[in-house]
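Example S7 (structure tokens).
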């Protein structure tokens, strides 16, 4: 087998499997294509969206190849989804409501008011958001932005806000609406575990993959992530209850609060004056994630189904169109009802049947192999697992109720991957014997097994060139056959890193605006998770920050744990160091943008006690690794 770094052709078994997909599903159904084209007004003349440095952050024509017939190296169902999601431009949803699609992973929705325009979801980066707004204005006039709505707490729905409005406009009275709890969840998700999530997102969205028939063809929910500047302007109006009504620029919105669905803080919006319903990301043209592959908190499909049922009861009889922050709208009262009901049934079925099977003693892997969706749901294109999947969603349901342990005591105390790999390979007769038999399995088309067994060789001997090449080839074939866009991207990015080395983290959501939005409590928590516990086992130190005009903030590092308290506490009765300063300077100090000696020299801080203790404390902090290994130890 050649050890080439170039992508291989599809193996015969994968090509045959992909061909068979055409026989299983109604590819002659053109309704989605008609809906995706409906209301098209125009698109941008410049096909590259560029950032401040002149580099491209988004290419509108990057997926032009999807117009060709699906090749053997792609699942035809995913290829079809990519063709639909890659369409770009300004579209009229109904009179007065427009969407810019295909300018980022998500959509920007614009609702025209009496004098300006309300923007719903601002894409991921300021650069793509500005380009989307410019396209709208080119066709609809230079309307000012008179309001912004963040539908939920994921970065691709708020990160581009500074391409739409500035803080000065918000300070002047332009409202920014968001569901209750938005800021806490937006910040905590993207900062606490942001480094790991961004590294895994590089795999999930395939940002480093070449775009083409043997590379990245989309992510199911949209095509990929833009790579521009991510920002955040905190909301000024919280939506706290279903039925809350707000009017901006003559536009009346009735909110439907849906916490714990696709995001911890999320809402839908009814526009009574337009007979239109914005479903945020709660009902899109795919099966969504219950646990995203980049990592997140598990989402409860029982709650998700409940809020979809509620949306049907509250609004389905009053709306003529439903649209979302991804994909294309659904028009017609009967079609909207069917769409929302089927979306609800998907999540309810996964929830209920997973519980039925786990109560029969099946493990997550067994449930994933056993679960089949009802034929009527499987025939509906919008229920297909292009982004979430039945396989990984049922494992998420299991995790939600029972956690990581499957009940088998043999799995309680397993060896870590590298240590287990050494033993597996030794038991199987050494790496040469494993690879010989794995090549036979590859020839037989058992790529799942090749990936599973060669993974042991790689974790036992990561520099084994033959193992790296064979594993890359196996992952690649698995990617070619995947209907799920994020599975394909994970497989192909794994193959790319095995062949060419780490791709790093092309897109990061740990942005200055998000760090600035951290509360002091969150900022101190983010400091605590950076403490190198073993290095600080024997440290015992206390630092007090005496804030001007506020209660003091106390830090104690002991037993490798950094604890913070506000106000008097017996744990820090006599601190080793007491630093008097303003809260803004403390935030800068904790974020690493200010140095305590400079603050003292400038007269902005006074130190009592041993200043070396603060230096010692900061010395115990480690830095996260944005390039950690995934397919090798």
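Recovered sequence:
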């Amino acid at each position: 087998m050649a050890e080439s770094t170039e992508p291989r052709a599809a193996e015969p078994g994968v090509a045959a499997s992909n061909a068979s997909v055409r026989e299983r599903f109604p590819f002659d159904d053109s309704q989605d294509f008609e809906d995706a084209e409906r209301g098209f007004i125009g698109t941008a003349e410049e096909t590259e969206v560029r950032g401040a440095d002149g580099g491209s952050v988004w290419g509108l024509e990057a997926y032009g190849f999807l117009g060709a017939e699906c090749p053997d190296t792609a699942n035809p169902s995913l290829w079809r989804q990519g063709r639909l999601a890659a369409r770009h431009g300004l579209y009229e949803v109904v009179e007065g409501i427009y969407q810019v699609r295909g300018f980022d992973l998500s959509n920007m929705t614009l609702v025209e008011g009496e004098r300006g325009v309300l923007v719903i979801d601002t894409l991921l980066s300021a650069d793509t958001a500005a380009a989307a707004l410019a396209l709208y204005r080119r066709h609809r006039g230079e309307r000012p932005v008179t309001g912004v709505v963040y539908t939920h707490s994921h970065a691709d729905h708020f990160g581009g806000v500074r391409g739409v409005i500035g803080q000065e406009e918000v300070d002047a009275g332009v409202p920014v609406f968001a569901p209750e709890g938005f800021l806490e969840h937006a910040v905590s998700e993207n900062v606490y575990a942001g480094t790991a999530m961004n590294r895994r997102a590089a795999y999930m969205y395939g940002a480093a993959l070449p775009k083409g028939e043997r590379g990245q063809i989309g992510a199911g929910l949209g095509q990929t992530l833009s790579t521009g500047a991510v920002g955040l302007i905190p909301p000024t109006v919280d939506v706290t209850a279903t039925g809350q009504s707000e009017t901006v620029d003559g536009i009346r919105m009735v909110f439907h609060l849906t916490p714990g669905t696709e995001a911890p803080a999320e809402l839908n919006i009814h526009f009574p004056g337009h007979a239109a319903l914005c479903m945020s990301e709660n009902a899109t043209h795919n099966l969504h994630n219950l646990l995203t592959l980049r990592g997140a908190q598990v989402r409860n499909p029982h709650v998700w189904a409940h809020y979809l049922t509620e949306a049907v009861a509250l609004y389905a009889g009053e709306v003529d169109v439903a649209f979302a922050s991804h994909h294309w709208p659904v028009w017609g009262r009967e079609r909207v009802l069917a769409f929302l009901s089927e979306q609800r049934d998907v999540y309810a079925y996964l929830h209920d049947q997973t519980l039925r099977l786990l109560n029969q003693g099946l493990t997550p892997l067994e449930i994933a192999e056993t679960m089949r969706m009802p034929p009527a749901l499987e025939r509906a294109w919008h229920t297909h697992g292009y982004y979430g999947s039945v396989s990984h969603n049922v494992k998420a349901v299991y995790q939600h109720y029972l956690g990581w342990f499957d009940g088998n005591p043999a799995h309680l105390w397993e060896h870590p991957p590298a240590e287990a790999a050494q033993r597996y390979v030794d038991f199987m007769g050494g790496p040469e014997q494993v690879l010989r038999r794995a090549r036979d399995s590859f020839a037989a088309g058992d790529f799942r097994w090749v990936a599973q067994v060669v993974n042991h060789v790689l974790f036992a001997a990561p520099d084994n060139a033959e193992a790296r090449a064979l594993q890359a080839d196996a992952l690649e074939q698995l990617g070619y056959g995947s209907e799920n866009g994020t599975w394909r991207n994970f497989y192909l990015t794994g193959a790319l890193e095995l062949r060419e080395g780490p791709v790093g983290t092309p897109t990061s959501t740990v942005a200055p605006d998000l760090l600035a939005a951290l509360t002091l409590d969150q900022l101190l928590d983010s400091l605590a998770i950076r403490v190198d516990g073993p290095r600080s086992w024997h440290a015992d130190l206390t630092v007090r920050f005496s804030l001007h005009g506020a209660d003091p903030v106390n830090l104690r590092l002991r037993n490798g744990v950094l604890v913070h308290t506000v106000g008097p506490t017996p744990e820090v009765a006599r601190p080793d160091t007491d630093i008097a300063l303003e809260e803004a300077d403390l935030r800068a100090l904790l974020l690493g943008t200010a140095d305590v000696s400079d603050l003292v020299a400038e007269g902005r801080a006074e130190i009592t006690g041993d200043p070396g203790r603060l230096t010692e404390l900061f010395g115990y902090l480690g830095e996260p690794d944005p390039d950690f290994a995934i397919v090798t130890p």
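Notes on this example. The mean pLDDT is 96.
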